[in-house]
Structure formats: C-alpha cells, structure tokens
Design goal:
Blueprint (H helix, E strand, L loop, with lengths): L6 E3 L6 E3 L1 E4 L8 H14 L3 E3 L7 H14 L9 E6 L6 H15 L4 E6 L3 E3 L13 E3 L2 H13 L3 E7 L3 H8 L8 E5 L7 H7 L5 E5 L18 H10 L3 H11 L3 E4 L4 H6 L10 H8 L10 H4 L3 H13 L4
Bound molecules: NADP nicotinamide-adenine-dinucleotide phosphate.
Length: about 325
C-alpha cells in the first residue's frame, strides 16, 4: 500500500508541501526513460512531491512521468502533486526570470509549478561553458530586482509559492530588506552531519521553511560519500531499532521540523525512505546525532572556482552551519 506523507503549510500561500520530496538529480545522470520509470514507481509508492531544476535537465522526463501517471490513473489530477523547480544562475536578471520559468513549464508541460526557487545567490553569464567557472563569468546577484522577477512569477500564477536555495542568513537579510513577498522556503544542504542550527533559528521566526537536500550525504555521487550511511553512531542506532541508517537520518531530519528532498531511483530504497512516520527516535538517540562532529559535504570552490565571491559565500555557508 502507498504511504501517505504528512504535509507542512507554507507561508504566503495556501499550499501544503509533502514533507518528503523525491530528488531528480542523480549521478551519473540516468537516461530520461529510466528517470521517468523511477518517478512513476515513486508515485505508486506514495511520493507526491518532486524536486527538479532547469540546470538538472530532468524537467522533461518529470513532465512525461506526470502525464503518464495521469493516463494510468495513478493520480486523478496534477493538483495532487507538488512540483518544485529552480531559476538557474545564467538567468539571474529581473527580465529573464519569467522567461526562464516559462521554459521550465514548457519542459514540464505544466501551467504552474508549486514552488519556484532561486537556485544559487549568484549570477553566471550566459556564455559560461565550463566548471570551475572563470572569474569573468561570475557576478553577485542583484537581489532586489531578481526577487521582483520571482514575485512576478507568483503574481502571474506561474508559481504558487516562491523561495530560495543555498541562501545564507546574510543573503536572506539582504533579500528580506526589499522583498514584498517573503520567501516561503530556503532549500539547503542539511543532514545529521550538517545541521544548520544557526540558519534554522534565523528562518523560523520569519516563517521561512527549511528544506533539506543531500539528506543521506549523497552516497555514490561525485559530490557525496558514505559519511552518513557509514557513520558508526547512526549505524548503531539503526541496528538497535531494526531500521537502516538512511531511515535514521531521514527520521532525525523530520523530527527537526524540516522537509526532506531525498533521491533514490531504486524502488525498494524509495519505499524504505518513506517508512519513517510510525516510529520515533528517543531523546538519547536524537542527542547523540546532534552531537556528531559537523562536516559539510557539498563545497562550492570545486564547482565555481576559487574566486573572492565564491570564497565569501562559502565562508557564510560554513558559519551558518555551526551549532551555536
Ligand atoms: N538546491 C540544490 O542546490 C541541491 C543540491 C543538491 C541536491 N539537491 C536536490 O536534492 C536531491 C537529493 O540530494 P542528493 O541527490 O545530493 O543526495 P541524497 O538524497 O542524500 O543521496 C542520494 C544517494 O543515496 C542513495 N540512496 C537513497 N536512498 C538510500 C537508502 N535508503 N539506502 C542507501 N542508499 C540510498 C541513492 O542511490 P539510489 O538511487 O541507487 O538509491 C543516491 O546515490 C537531489 O536529487 C536534488 O533534487 C538540490
């Protein structure tokens, strides 16, 4: 039987977002047909929330999977799904925001997305061709004007909610200083080894919901490893409860009040990752996890290069992740 995933209410809109979403960015990238089949399996298992981005090149197969799920009667209406996509950094100008979302909607074959996020608080030139990026292709984001473009997406009904990703407390402060509609979500890396305490404390009173990507440490990808799934403390807790390390990590995140974007294209593991709602961690288990030494996984420098702008953002991100 399919699992029913609980939802969380988002500010500034009438939407409820399922607390577990399926990530669509895998490594190495899978053929579109494989991704489409995985999404259909995920819908059968109970997933109703999918996370994509212009930059992932997974919008098209996701759109095809949604159309197929409707045809198969797995869902009655598109409204049963919660779809997130993201503005890529090469579209980091006010007048490019609505057109970028329109490209995403055309890829997805949808009239609206539930959540539209600024992917990174940086702008890249349209000419960027390689990673790490050369200095002349990297710019600060004009927060005020790009956010006006995001607000237009919401006002036009192309996105039900708008938010950000990879934003630090400092970047959020800058955004909030001029935003007419505050961001509903900040999607950032968060897991038992990167707990984002300072950022969460900043976001909570402002009604900005934190969503956790890389919740399992992105094992077997080029940006991750087994630091979480192979962590002694997590393995020990998992063994004593008859659960897997992945379930312990996901349950810990759920108990912190954040939503989770986890990726598995394997039908058994995707089901396992939903099976976290009818049991809990003891206070002692939770405390043990909250005391693990911190280690950020996804780093910017290897992707964006050692430029001042990148190093400054990286320093802000590392500071936000501290426990106090
Ligand atoms: N906003 C951003 O900048 C940003 C950055 C990174 C990621 N994201 C989003 O977040 C999603 C998830 O993050 P992520 O892909 O970095 O990492 P993740 O979800 O932490 O880990 C994915 C890896 O874990 C494996 N896995 C999944 N469930 C498992 C289980 N129960 N037991 C053992 N292994 C398991 C997957 O392999 P199998 O598929 O073989 O199960 C895959 O190799 C992405 O797909 C993307 O949508 C957003």
């Amino acid at each position: 039987m399919a699992t029913t995933v609980p939802g969380v209410s988002l500010s500034t809109c009438d939407l409820t977002m399922p607390v577990i979403g399926m990530g669509t960015m895998g490594h190495p990238p899978v053929p579109p047909e494989t991704l489409k089949a995985a999404i259909i399996e995920a819908i059968k298992a109970g997933y109703r929330h999918f996370d994509t981005a212009f930059a992932y090149r997974t919008e098209q197969p996701l759109g095809e999977a949604i159309a197929e799920a409707l045809k198969l009667g797995l869902i009655k209406s598109r409204d049963e799904l919660f779809i997130t996509t993201k503005l890529w950094a090469t579209f980091g100008e006010k007048e490019l925001v609505v057109p970028c979302l329109k490209i995403s909607l055309s890829n997805l074959k949808l009239d609206y997305v539930d959540l539209y996020l600024i992917h990174w608080p940086l702008k890249l030139s349209q000419e960027v061709r390689q990673m790490p990026v050369e200095k002349e292709h990297l710019f600060p984001l004009d927060m005020k004007s790009v956010w006006e473009g995001m607000e237009e997406c919401k006002n036009l009904g192309l996105a039900k909610a708008i938010g950000v990703s990879n934003f630090t407390c400092k970047k959020l402060e800058e955004l909030l200083a001029t935003a007419k509609i505050p961001p509903a979500v900040n999607q950032v890396e968060m897991n038992p080894l990167w707990r984002q305490k300072k950022l969460r404390e900043f976001c909570k009173p402002k009604g900005i919901h934190v969503s956790a990507f890389t919740p399992l440490g992105a094992n077997n990808t080029k940006w991750g490893d087994n630091r979480i799934l192979g962590c002694d403390v997590i393995e020990e807790i998992a063994k004593s409860k008859g659960k897997t390390p992945a379930q312990i990590s996901l349950r810990w995140l759920y108990e912190q009040g954040v939503s989770i974007i986890a990726k598995s294209f394997n039908s058994e593991r995707m089901k396992q990752n939903l099976d976290i709602f009818d049991w809990s961690l003891t206070e002692e288990e939770s405390n043990k996890i909250s005391q693990l030494p911190q280690r950020k996984g996804v780093l910017l420098e290897p992707v964006l290069g050692s430029h001042d702008l990148v190093l400054q953002l990286q320093a802000e991100i590392l500071e936000d992740g501290l426990d106090s």
